[in-house]
């Protein structure tokens, strides 16, 4: 087990490094001149060249990458003299268009994205697995059919359309909810919920159907296993068989998918944040794209990638713990 | 026994590397699936290969078919070395050796009609038939006892026994000399097993086929084979004619295997004393030293752990790999 | 006669499928008495496993159409409440499945799985007591080093060892009836011999009645007292084991024995077969379900194709047979089949 863990963690570390190199390279080889973006429209070629040298964009890519990595570890000072700006570790770069450290930009937007992700995740798991269970247990009868019809409808909505629809129904038409405006849950918990309920709903309606299917399929498949029949033949109660025999093996693969999906959502719910104008990481990335703000793009991509790698690692470890076949070899 | 040798394997070895549990997953162990097996298949005759799960009989089949490359050793077809052939030359070999699989359901593509299934090898191996492809397939269907009018039906419309007939027809399509049959009747009901065995014997007589017939069921092999090898943990422990192996088995494993077969006669069942082997087959990753059977052998002595018994013919054309045969 | 453990009367089980109604079991009746071993023999699709599921109350009542009665432990399993059937399972009747590789829950140690089965009928015992019981059972079914095995997971055992563990689970509550559905089919022949020996020894010790479901006449010959031969969901013949092998009283039994015996026979030559293929369970032939494959039906003037024969006792042997042939004809069936 220890070898397994060590191997997984080492692998995740290598993967993270690869992700950083890859994102860095992609955005450096883009046909955009990063130096030209460092000053406004009234830029002169001289200033661009000066900035290029100042920021090290004239250096080879490898040198730039090493500096970037050093910045993550120990912080970094960008520019010199009057325009000098220091970002503490971990520094992911400096955004000239926003005049701020990328790390602080992300740190400001991450709580919003995390709030959306946590709430949405909790809801979609509850509804996905819950309705999936109902579907499997009532297989072929009306609850199963109803759930399957509703999930197909949910699945077929594009995210932005669904978000707009919810916005229209709850905010503009019935006016049950105010227009979402993010507040920290520590300041105003109720306000936090109120602002995020629609984004949560959006994510849930989009993601839950997939989990309903996974759960239904997993349970039905497990229920046909001999060991489940043996459990019933032992005289165990239906609920005990369901809990210890069916759910356990049906849910393990779902947790794996869920962990990964959560990691992805943490990287920014782009459409949802945009429609509800929530200042999260997704919107930060979108803005960076339209502004060609390369340092922010590299930063957000790297952070999103890190979430995926980390949650992938966590689910792998989880898998090892719950499945003795992974944990103990013959 | 004067028939010429068609297919021959010399000292075949197949090790499968295992994934180790260490940090770098460097493979140090290997599953010794087949470990120095030599066989001869004669024209128009049947070699029966018998053993329990894990003895290496299915790996041996795949090595003979050249579906797997051996770790070492050679396979000769009609005296020509086919061990390291690839590409077109290997395809030419495939037209001479064909395989029939255990599970007639899993080995047939459910989306292809019977006609397509039987006809595909013809196309793939570019074998030309005198008559048109369709007529050729229908002749084959008739040959194996299927209704040629069912040309366009799909596998699920047939029963287990009929599906195995389809599998046999497919193997016959390219006109092979040798058919390697891996447990061809194990998945079938008793009454159907006999039908398929009869068909295989009839085809052998009519077409002069040679069979490598692999089975865990000794009674099935006894009936169809001219020559039998008994395998245990990747090695041949005993070989000979059916009467040698069944009437005068000399290896304790063969004896135990024979005595374990339930006899369909209650009186005999009550009187015959079984040699019930203790324990399980050891891991082929780390087989016992010396004789591989010694851990379960009622006759094992110190020598068995030290020295591996060679497969020795003691003069009766009935080789046995045991220090204390009898 | 010893005490009756199970009584099945005119059991019918049918399933609706997209292709039509599958009449899996079509009116079978039999008794099982204390200490007795009943072998149910049949080929795939004969309804033998469906019968086993029905006795354990494992058949989904919503998807299956069942009639007749199954009297077990003073209840009719077909009409009893789920709660009542639960009290029977494990104690009145326990089951051993065909494939030991899939019959154990991969997520729990084998000790826990045995203890759990015990807990169902002994809820007041402590964890420690149950562990001791599990240890004892592991030793009884012949696992080497029970004290180590008890904390291991199913995947750490071989097929034969897993089947021993399944048997331990089945016997931990000392059930009056053990239903073994092809318990050795998935195992190697030497391991099969071990498991059959074990089951017979444990039957002596526990005194359970056994229903052994198999396609293998050899297995039946070794362990059964009574044999019921099923074909297409119906009983073809029911006899004492020795009688069945000496004087089979149904053409189907004769055909089966012929196939097996000619295989056992050392001489080469065409094997005895039963012509044709098993019928589709959706559209069974009229009359006797075996008649399209029966070598005698042609000489019966169409009787076999129209009238379904009922089981009747042959006074000479005490066997029951469902065949239109007369007693003398049935009694002479065995003549051509015996190998000695």
What is the CATH class of chain B?
Alpha Beta
Give the tally of β-strands of chain A: 4
Name the beta content range of chain A.
Answer: under 5%
Radius of gyration of chain A using CA atoms only: 24 Å
The termini of chain B sit apart by 25 Å
User: How many distinct domains of chain A?
Assistant: 2
- The CATH class designation of the largest domain in chain A is Mainly Alpha
Sheet with most strands: strand arrangement of chain B:
6-7-8-3-9-10
Oligomerization: heterotrimer
Order of strands, main sheet of chain A, comes to 1-2
What proportion of the residues of chain A is helical, as a percent range? over 70%
What structural class results from the helix and strand content of chain B? alpha/beta
Number of helices of chain B: 11
Poorly predicted sequence stretches spanning 5 or more consecutive residues of chain A: none
Total helical segments of chain A: 13
Task: Note down, in words, how this protein is organized.
- The complex is a heterotrimer of chains A (330), B (326) and C (340).
- Chain A is built from 13 helices and four strands.
- Chain A is mostly helical.
- The radius of gyration of chain A is 24 Å and the shape is globular.
- The model of chain A has no long low-confidence stretch (mean pLDDT 85).
- Chain B is an alpha/beta fold.
- Chain B is globular, with a radius of gyration of 21 Å.
- In chain B, α3 packs parallel to α5, α4 packs across α5 (160-172) and α5 packs parallel to α6.
- Chain B has a single domain, classed as Rossmann fold (3-Layer(aba) Sandwich).
- Chain C has 340 residues and is of the alpha/beta class.
- Chain C folds into two domains: 4-229, Rossmann fold (3-Layer(aba) Sandwich); 253-336, no CATH class.
- Chain C has helices at residues 48-55, 82-88, 110-121, 127-140, 146-149, 159-171, 189-206, 217-223, 241-246, 251-264, 303-306, 327-331, and strands at residues 4-17, 20-33, 37-41, 64-72, 75-76, 93-96, 177-181, 209-214, 226-231, 234-240, 312-313, 320-321.
- In chain C, the strands form two sheets. Chain C has an eight-stranded mixed beta sheet with strand order 6-7-8-3-9-10-12-11, with helices on both faces. Chain C has a four-stranded antiparallel beta sheet with strand order 2-1-4-5, with helices on one face.
- Chains in contact: A-B, A-C, B-C.
- Chains B and C meet through α5, α6, α7, α8 and α9 of B and α6, α7, α8, α9 and α10 of C.
């Amino acid at each position: 087990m220890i070898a397994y863990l060590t191997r997984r963690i080492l692998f995740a570390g290598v993967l993270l490094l690869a992700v950083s190199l890859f994102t860095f390279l992609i955005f450096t080889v883009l046909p955009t001149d990063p130096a030209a973006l460092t000053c406004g429209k009234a830029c002169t070629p001289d200033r661009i060249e000066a900035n290029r040298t100042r920021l090290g964009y004239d250096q080879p890519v490898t040198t730039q990458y090493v500096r970037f990595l050093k910045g993550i570890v120990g912080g970094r000072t960008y520019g010199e003299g009057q325009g000098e700006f220091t970002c503490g570790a971990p520094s992911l770069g400096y955004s000239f268009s926003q005049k701020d450290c990328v790390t602080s930009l992300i740190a400001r937007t991450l709580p919003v994205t995390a709030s959306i992700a946590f709430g949405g995740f909790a809801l979609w798991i509850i509804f996905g697995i819950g309705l999936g269970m109902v579907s499997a247990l009532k297989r072929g009868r009306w609850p199963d059919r109803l759930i399957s019809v509703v999930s197909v409808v949910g699945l077929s909505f594009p995210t932005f359309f669904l978000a707009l629809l919810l916005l229209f129904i709850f905010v503009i038409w019935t006016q049950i909810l105010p227009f979402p405006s993010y507040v920290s849950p520590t300041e105003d918990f109720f306000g936090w919920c109120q602002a995020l309920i629609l984004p949560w709903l959006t994510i849930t309606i989009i993601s839950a159907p997939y989990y309903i299917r996974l759960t239904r399929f997993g349970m039905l498949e497990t229920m046909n296993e001999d060991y489940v029949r043996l459990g019933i033949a032992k005289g165990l109660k239906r609920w005990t068989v369901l809990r210890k025999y069916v759910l356990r093996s049906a849910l393990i693969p779902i947790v794996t998918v869920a962990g990964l999906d959560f990691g992805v959502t943490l990287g920014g719910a782009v459409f949802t944040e945009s429609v509800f104008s929530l200042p999260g990481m997704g919107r930060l990335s979108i803005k960076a794209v339209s502004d060609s703000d390369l340092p922010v793009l590299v930063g957000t991509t790297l952070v999103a990638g890190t979430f995926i790698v980390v949650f992938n690692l966590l689910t792998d470890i989880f898998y090892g713990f719950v499945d003795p076949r992974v944990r103990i070899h013959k | 026994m004067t028939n010429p040798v068609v297919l021959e394997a010399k000292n075949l070895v197949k090790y499968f590397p295992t994934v180790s549990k260490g940090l770098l997953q460097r493979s140090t162990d290997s599953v010794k699936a087949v470990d120095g097996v030599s066989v001869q298949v004669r024209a128009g005759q049947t070699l029966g290969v018998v053993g329990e799960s894990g003895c290496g009989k299915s790996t041996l089949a795949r090595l003979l078919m050249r579906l797997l490359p051996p770790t070492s050793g050679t396979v000769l077809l009609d005296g020509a070395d086919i061990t390291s052939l690839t590409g077109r030359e290997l395809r030419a070999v495939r037209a001479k050796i064909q395989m029939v699989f255990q599970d007639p359901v899993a080995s047939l593509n459910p989306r292809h009609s019977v006609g397509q299934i039987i006809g595909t090898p013809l196309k793939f191996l570019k074998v030309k038939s005198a008559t048109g492809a369709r007529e050729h397939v229908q002749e084959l269907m008739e040959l194996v006892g299927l209704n040629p009018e069912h040309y366009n039906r799909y596998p699920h419309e047939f029963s287990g026994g009929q599906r195995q007939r389809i599998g046999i027809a497919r193997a016959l399509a390219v006109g092979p000399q040798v058919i390697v049959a891996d447990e061809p009747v194990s998945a079938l009901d008793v009454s159907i097993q006999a039908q398929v065995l009869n068909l295989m014997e009839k085809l052998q007589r009519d077409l002069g086929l040679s069979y490598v017939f692999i089975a865990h069921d000794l009674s099935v092999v006894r009936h169809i084979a001219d020559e039998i090898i008994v395998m245990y943990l990747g090695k041949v422990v005993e070989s000979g004619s059916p009467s040698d192996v069944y009437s005068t088995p000399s290896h304790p494993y063969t004896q135990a295997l024979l005595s374990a077969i339930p006899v369909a006669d209650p009186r005999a069942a009550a009187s015959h004393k079984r040699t019930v082997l203790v324990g399980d087959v050891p891991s082929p990753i780390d087989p016992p030293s010396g004789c591989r059977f010694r851990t379960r052998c009622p006759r094992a002595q110190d020598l068995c752990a030290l020295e591996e018994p060679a497969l020795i013919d003691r003069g009766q054309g009935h080789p046995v790999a045991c220090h204390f045969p009898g | 006669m010893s005490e009756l453990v199970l009584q099945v009367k005119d059991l019918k089980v049918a399933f609706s499928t997209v292709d039509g109604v599958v009449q899996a079991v079509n009116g079978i009746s039999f008794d099982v008495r204390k200490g007795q071993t009943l072998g149910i023999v049949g080929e795939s699709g004969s309804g033998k496993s469906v019968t086993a599921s029905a006795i354990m109350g494992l058949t989904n009542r919503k998807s299956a159409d069942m009639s007749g009665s199954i009297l077990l432990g003073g209840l009719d399993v077909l009409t009893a409440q789920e709660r009542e059937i639960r009290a029977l399972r494990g104690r009145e009747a326990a089951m051993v499945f065909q494939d030991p590789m899939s019959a154990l829950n991969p997520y729990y140690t084998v000790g826990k799985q045995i203890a759990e089965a015990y807990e169902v009928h002994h809820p007041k015992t402590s964890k420690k007591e149950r562990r001791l019981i599990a240890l004892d059972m592991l030793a009884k079914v012949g696992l080497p080093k029970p004290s180590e095995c008890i904390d291991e997971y199913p995947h750490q055992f071989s097929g034969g060892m897993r089947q021993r563990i399944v048997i331990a689970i089945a016997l931990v509550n000392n059930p009056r009836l053990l239903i073994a559905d092809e318990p050795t089919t998935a195992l190697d022949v030497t391991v099969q011999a071990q498991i059959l020996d074990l089951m017979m020894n444990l039957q002596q010790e526990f005194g359970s009645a056994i229903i052994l479901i198999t396609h293998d006449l050899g297995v039946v010959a070794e362990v059964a007292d009574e044999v019921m031969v099923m074909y297409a969901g119906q009983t073809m013949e029911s006899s004492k084991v020795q009688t069945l092998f000496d004087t089979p009283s149904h053409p189907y039994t004769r055909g089966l024995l012929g196939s097996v015996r000619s295989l056992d026979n050392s001489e080469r030559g065409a094997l005895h077969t039963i012509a044709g293929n098993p019928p589709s369970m959706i559209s069974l032939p009229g009359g006797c379900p075996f008649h399209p494959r029966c070598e005698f039906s042609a000489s019966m003037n169409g009787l076999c194709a129209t009238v379904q024969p009922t089981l009747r006792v042959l006074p000479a042997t005490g066997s029951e047979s469902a065949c239109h042939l007369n007693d003398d004809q049935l009694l002479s069936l065995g003549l051509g089949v015996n190998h000695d």
